[in-house]
Specification:
The chain has four helices and seven strands; from the N terminus they run ααββββββαβα. It is α+β, with helices and mostly antiparallel strands. The protein has a single domain, classed as PvuII Endonuclease, Chain A (3-Layer(aba) Sandwich). The strands form two sheets. It has a five-stranded mixed β-sheet. Strands 4-7 form a two-stranded antiparallel sheet. The longest helix is centred in the N-terminal third of the chain and has 17 residues. The radius of gyration is 16 Å and the shape is globular. The termini are far apart.
Length: 152
């Protein structure tokens, strides 16, 4: 019981510090990923539930959608009006570090993967992209199209 109280207290502290819900109902991983990405890549987070994008890159003003996971896949939005300007997919490691899975224009994923493979969507809401597919796609994105990660 004490650990649950600690967890709830920690999520309240994070909510106050970062202005994110950090709710324990499934959004927690996304909120953690957004905060970690913002710090690692020099991003300013947009208000929660902003349409299509989660953050703006400080250096360029580029709008970014962030997807983070502890699993072997990430979701990519379905629909022409939902394709993010920039898509940043990250794996959160057990030590809290990040592994970049994809860092590039959202249109790059559509053109080089979804359309080429005729990928099927889930109920017109999202596509499921494997970690391996994202890593392979990321290797094809020119460096000048990527958001620069801050040096630790």
């Amino acid at each position: 019981m004490h650990q649950i109280q600690q967890l709830l207290s920690i999520t309240q502290q994070l909510k106050a510090q970062y202005g994110r819900s950090f709710s324990l109902d499934g959004r927690l991983v996304g909120d953690i990923g957004e905060v970690l990405a913002a710090e690692a890549y020099g991003l300013d987070l947009l208000p929660e539930n902003s349409f299509k994008h989660d953050a703006k890159e400080r250096a360029t003003g580029k709008l970014v959608q962030i997807k983070a996971s502890f699993k072997g896949y990430c979701y990519f939005p379905y629909g022409v009006d939902r394709i993010p300007d920039h898509f940043l997919a990250l794996n959160i490691n057990s030590d809290g570090s990040l592994t970049e899975l994809f860092n590039g224009p959202g249109s790059f994923i559509v053109e080089h993967y979804i359309q080429k493979r005729g990928l099927k969507h889930y109920k017109e809401t999202f596509y499921t992209l494997s970690k391996g597919s994202l890593i392979n796609l990321n290797k094809q994105v020119p460096d000048e199209q990527k958001i620069k990660r801050k040096v630790a």
